Each structure stands twice: as C-alpha cells, then as structure tokens.
Amino acid sequence: xxxxxxxxxxxxxxxxxxxxxxxxxxxxxxxxxxxxxxxxxxxxxxxxxxxxxxxxxxxxxxxxxxxxxxxxxxxxxxxxxxxxxxxxxxxxxxxxxxxxxxxxxxxxxxxxxxxxxxxxxxxxxxxxxxxxxxxxxxxxxxxxxxxxxxxxxxxxxxxxxxxxxxxxxxxxxxxxxxxxxxxxxxxxxxxxxxxxxxxxxxxxxxxxxxxxxxxxxxxxxxxxxxxxxxxxxxxxxxxxxxxxxxxxxxxxxxxxxxxxxxxxxxxxxxxxxxxxxxxxxxxxxxxxxxxxxxxxxxxxxxxxxxxxxxxxxxxxxxxxxxxxxxxxxxxxxxxxxxxxxxxxxxxxxxxxxxxxxxxxxxxxxxxxxxxxxxxxxxxxxxxxxxxxxxxxxxxxxxxxxxxxxxxxxxxxxxxxxxxxxxxxxxxxxxxxxxxxx
Length: 437
Description:
single chain, mainly alpha, Growth Hormone, Chain: A, 16 helices, 0% strand
C-alpha cells in the first residue's frame, strides 16, 4: 500500500493448472487468432460471463445514483460533486493500484476488490430502501467506489494478457469493449424502467447481486501461479513505473495522445444536456437518442478494433484521434438532431478505437514486471483525466459557449494526433517488448 516499506509476500495459487489444463492452454494459444476464437480460453469465458452480468448491474447503479441525488437535492452542483468524487480517485491512486497489480496474485486481489464493490452497493441499497439515505452518504459511497476502482481497474485489465496470451490480446480487449458498451445500453434502460416503478434502491440491490457472478467466475478460474519477487518501498515502485513508461517511446506517446484526447475531448458527454437544449432545442428524448448513438458508435469502434492487424495497430491510434477531433468539431456545429447523430457515431467509434488500440499497444510492449503499473498509467490518462476535462469544458462553455468550447477541444485533439503521427514516423518504433530498465 502507499508508503508501506515492508515487503509484500506473494503466495502462489493453491490449485495450479493440471498438466492436462496446461497442455490445452498451450494448444489454444497456438491456434489462429480470431474474435470469437478468444472464447476457447476457459479462463476468459468465465471472465466474460461474470463481467457481462456485473457490468449491467454497474450501469444500473451509475444511472440511478445521479437520479437519486437530483431527486433529493435538485442541485446541479451536487450532481457534479458526486460525479467528481466517483472518478477523481482514479487519477491520484491508480498508480498505486498498478503497483499492487505487479506485486500480487491478480486473481486473488480481484476477489478482494469485487467483494468490496459488492459491499458498497449493498450499503447503498440498504440505506435507500430503508429511507435513511442522505446526499452526503451518496457522496461518501461514490468516493468509496472511486477508491475501489483505482485498484480494481489496473488489476483487471492487466489480467487480460494472463488469460488469453499476446496473439489474442486485441480481440479480448475488443470483446471487453463490446461487453462494456452493450451493458452501457442495456443497464440504463433497465434502470429507467425500475426507477419509474419501484425506485432507485432496487437498482443498487441488483448491482450488489450482480457482483456474485464475478466472484464465482474468479473462484473457478485456474491461472498459472505468479512467482514471488522482492519488492521495494511502494513509492519507489510507483516512481520506477513512471520512469519505465516515459522511457519507452511506444508507451510515452500513446499515453500523451490518450491524455490529451480525454482531457480536451472525452468530456463532451458531460455537455450533452447543454447541447440538447441550446443547440438542438430538444428534450430528454433527444438526449437519450444522442446517448444511445454514443453507445452504438462505441460498439462499432470495438468491432473495428477486432479487425485491425498488428501492422495497422501502429497508426490506428493516430487515425482514430484525428477522426475523433474532426468529429467533435462537426458535432459542435450541428443544430439538427439526426445530423448530430451522424457526427456522433464516428466520433464515439473513434474514441473507443483510440482507447482500445492504445491499451493493446502498451500491454503488448510492457515488460511483465511493469504491466500493472503501465496499465495504471493508461487508466490515469484515460479515465483519470475525464473529471478534470469536465470541469475545464464546463468552465470554458460558460465563457465562450458550448459550440466554441467543444470545437476548441476537438482541434486540440486533432493537433495531438498530428504530433503523434510525426513522432511515430520520426522514431520508427515497432510494437515489441520493451525490457525493464
């Protein structure tokens, strides 16, 4: 944990794979890679099933939480504070989460983080259903979930390579993205119907129950034992992770591109209500249409990710970043709903493709001992920048208008993609393992 000087022993998995299971896994990895072929890996099948169920519950809670906050307070300020508290820990603490992911048995640690998330949802459900919920409790519980995610996300993402191997990695990341965005469509729809009939509490309760699927899948997994290693002071390991990431050209430029795109571009989602009211003169139905378009675009991006070859992977993030920036500029100048949908589909697809290809590159490049920390830097650059981007874009929109604010963000994203393209041509790097320094 942060600042802890003692060594953290890593114990092997109690039930390592049998000889037959090990041979089968080797045979699986040797087979040609394809999107659905990823499911030949038993561990990934278990992971996918558990995560799909859990993510639908998580999106139900993500939909019900702001609705409950606004129902209790009618305050947009408290809406913003709640959202900020749920995401800002990722920016500050994810590097420590990555450090832990490099130290410990990832499967066992995920059992801890997922159990903690279940307890958070159970507490929120109990307080809401009993009628004792208050807004300060929601804020505290949102902060708690942010803390849990800071350790859960880098561990979960860095375990993908453990489950499927290098050749199937981009297909697994693509399927993970499809799963996430499919749940992003189904979960809020179910939550909306349940809130109208029985209230927010049942959404939180169903999320708590959904974590059971993840816990069962993790218990049933059989991953190779992780060899113990001598650990430094936690702060030193975090610093070593940053030194490694920024000393590796492939990782460094990928993180910069993702961070700029997230800070100046991805926060456009927070401006949807203003876009609908000020530019489209629409209502909540129009906002729902735009949000569905964003989800559909992300699914399209995930599909294209599965079709990209390793050679195309070199420049795919640059092309996706440029397309995302241009799409934002066009979207910000639209005053017609379906024209906005037309621009939003490729924009959302490009953002997903940018994140997915970058995630794939850094996992393929990173040395095993640094993978968790490198993934944490990706999470920090992508998810961790979003709350700051929301604050920046909101402040800018209040001064110069929604159209100009989103347009400026899109142009900055486009400029960063052009810079990344020039950098990659100048360095001529390839996607290959970068040894630990």
